[in-house]
UniProtKB/TrEMBL annotation:
It is an enzyme of class 3 (hydrolase). SUPFAM superfamilies: P-loop containing nucleoside triphosphate hydrolases. InterPro entries: G_TrmE, GTP-bd, GTP-bd_TrmE_N, GTPase_MnmE, MnmE_dom2, MnmE_helical, P-loop_NTPase, Small_GTP-bd. This is tRNA modification GTPase MnmE. K(+) binds at residues 229, 248, 250, 253. It comes from Ruminococcus champanellensis (strain DSM 18848 / JCM 17042 / KCTC 15320 / 18P13).
Length: 454
């Protein structure tokens, strides 16, 4: 195994920068670049101890005064000998110290290579390693809670219990298939069917957590729609906290889609403000209306804006019928200016009808509560494990497909060794998910997403 080095702190100026060196020669590399102030040799330092001293360049000129921290294998993040040089946090300075580490025998670390080594040393499962990246990129409390429970092995345990059940079924089947003439209790198709159906339901529950994690991570694709002049752009500006969209009292002001990401409590909304929906002879506006309808089709959340000061018009009804049963909130804007709109007309179609004034900000709290209820009320318990990326979800889905095929095979009375093959595939897919039996290529792919130094 080589000895690797990288700057583990951000690629920016800061108070302190940490250069991490890990591998069998980590302490030799450290001893070559670092001269301790107390004169005691680095090679004699115990794990979890520090020393103050100087980094010297190849000509013996001081580069910086630093703190060296020593970790002794296996008690380190990577499980290897590790030396950390904490120097002053200049970009040029930290890169110079890193270069000296390379000159002293270390190799540049690949993205995620420290964590990959921790995985290979058995310190982390693959899902736990992935959680490290989630921790780093978490943008809020809910995301942090998911990443932390992933780190604590929640997903690993949940998947592992499914793998365990599969292994028990497989060993029953193996005994039956291999020794049919012996006095082994037969595998009852009904019992097998029931076990597999329950297992499929477990996996389906795990798969459904993915959407929650994705919503926290990527935000909700949200479209603001409605007929012209109802106040869509004013709402866009209210939500984003600045004058993002042009607002006028001229119907047909917005034409192009205006996009902005905003944070609302635990939710991130990826907002698109669109052209007011109407038939118009203006070609440019008409193109805007077409795009608005397209965005409406793709959106995960529809903020359907209506004008409280006017009764529902045909364009409003057309919008309502297009929305159908999609995830949507009816917003009755301009609540400050009167109410010609009776909410009952809308509550037949929408679970939430919220009067607001985008102009004064009235009702925004209620809107936020409605959106939280819509997206987070059936949120899974982060403690129980939330899938955090596409790879994990695809593995669960593949395992579910194998199990569905096995159930179909049992029901159509196919030979049990055929069922065994399918369940073997399912078990292998779950072992790939946790990394217990992942190929080199899968592992490479996981760590390629990481940053250098992690
Ligand atoms: N300076 C520094 N801070 C850091 C890290 C690091 O590598 N260096 N980490 C890197 O991302 C995180 C901490 N991760 C670590 C994980 C395990 C061990 C460790 O020494 N494990 C031992 C002892 C465990 C124990 O005492 O229970 C072991 O596994 O045997 C150290 C850091 C965050 N902060
Ligand atoms: N009284 C009142 N007026 C509002 C409110 N929201 C918007 N308006 C006014 O309504 C007019 C239209 O607002 P916009 O936000 O441009 O409406 P829009 O839906 O984006 O219109 P288009 O882009 O043309 O489709 C402007 O004169 C706003 O000042 C509100 O809550 N109360
Ligand atoms: Mg507008």
């Amino acid at each position: 195994m080589s000895t690797i080095a990288a700057i583990s702190t951000p690629n920016a100026v800061g108070g302190i920068a940490v250069i991490r060196v890990s591998g069998p020669d980590a302490l030799t590399v450290a001893a070559r670049v670092f001269t301790p102030a107390n004169g005691k040799p680095v090679s004699g330092m115990a794990g979890y101890t520090c020393a103050y001293g100087t980094v010297l360049d190849q000509d013996g000129n001081p580069v910086d005064d630093v703190v060296l921290t020593v970790f002794r294998a296996p008690h380190s993040y990577t499980g290897e000998d590790t030396a950390e040089l904490s120097c002053h946090g200049g970009l040029f300075l930290s890169r110079q110290v890193l270069r000296l580490c390379f000159a002293a025998g270390a190799e540049p670390a690949q993205p995620g290579e420290f964590t990959k080594r921790a995985f290979l040393a058995g310190k982390l499962s693959l899902t736990q390693a992935e959680s490290v990246m989630d921790l780093i990129s978490a943008q809020g409390d809910a995301q942090l809670r998911c990443a932390r429970s992933l780190r604590e092995g929640a997903v690993f345990r949940r998947i592992h219990s499914c793998t365990d059940q599969l292994v028990v079924l497989l060993s029953d089947l193996a005994a039956w298939v291999d020794y049919p003439e012996e006095d082994i209790p037969s595998v009852e198709p009904d019992a097998l069917d029931a076990s597999l159906t329950a297992l499929h339901a477990d996996l389906s529950a795990i798969a459904s957590t993915y959407d929650y994690g994705r919503i926290l991570r990527e935000g909700i694709n949200t479209v603001i729609v409605g007929r012209p002049n109802v106040g869509k752009s004013t709402l866009m500006n209210r939500l984003s906290g600045f004058e993002r969209s042009i607002v006028t009292d001229i119907a047909g002001t917005t034409r192009d889609v205006v996009e902005e990401s905003v944070r609302l409590g635990d939710l991130t909304l990826r907002l698109s403000d669109t052209a007011g929906l109407r038939d118009t002879p203006d070609r440019i506006e008409q193109l805007g209306v077409e795009i608005a309808y397209r965005r409406l089709e793709e959106a995960e959340l529809i903020l359907a804006v209506f004008d409280s000061t006017a009764p529902l018009l045909p364009q409003d009804r057309e919008l309502i019928s297009r929305i159908g049963k999609r995830r949507a909130v009816a917003i009755c804007n301009k609540s400050d200016a009167g109410s010609s709109l009776t909410p009952d007309e809308l509550s037949a179609h929408f679970a939430y009808v919220i009067p607001i004034s985008a102009k004064t900000g009235e009702g925004m709290e209620q809107l936020s509560s409605a959106l939280h209820a819509l997206f987070l009320s059936d949120a899974p318990d982060p403690q129980a494990g939330v899938l955090s990326n596409e790879r994990q979800k695809l593995c669960v889905e593949r395992a579910m497909e194998h199990i569905s095929a096995a159930i179909a095979a049992v029901r159509s009375g196919e030979p049990l060794d055929c069922v065994t093959v399918l369940l073997d595939d399912a078990a292998n897919t779950l072992l790939e998910l946790t990394g217990e039996r992942a190929t080199e290529a899968v592992v490479e792919q996981v760590f390629a997403r990481f940053c250098v130094g992690k």
